[in-house]
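WARN no homologs supplied; continuing
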Amino acid sequence: MGYSIQPVQIWTNGQASQGNFIEASIVNDNLSNYAQFYWVISNVTTDQDGAESKSALAQGNTTISGADYTAWGESQDINLAAYQYICSQLNLTLIA
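OK structure emitted
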């Protein structure tokens, strides 16, 4: 699972690359008031035969707590809400 994002330039291995996809997972959730997400921003391309290739460009962790954690837990689609939160923290535009 993952979502497209508005393309963003990422400096990696001495050159600028374009990230256009984000994937995330939960690293830790205390089921009370705190969770930690692991995220990866990748460049996804599709060749002329429709085969998709993905190369990771950046990765990291983001935490959610307090009122944001509560709002996330009350969302109708907590998976989408997690991606929306992560993208807001990374200043990325999610394309859902």
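The chain has a mean pLDDT of 96.
OK
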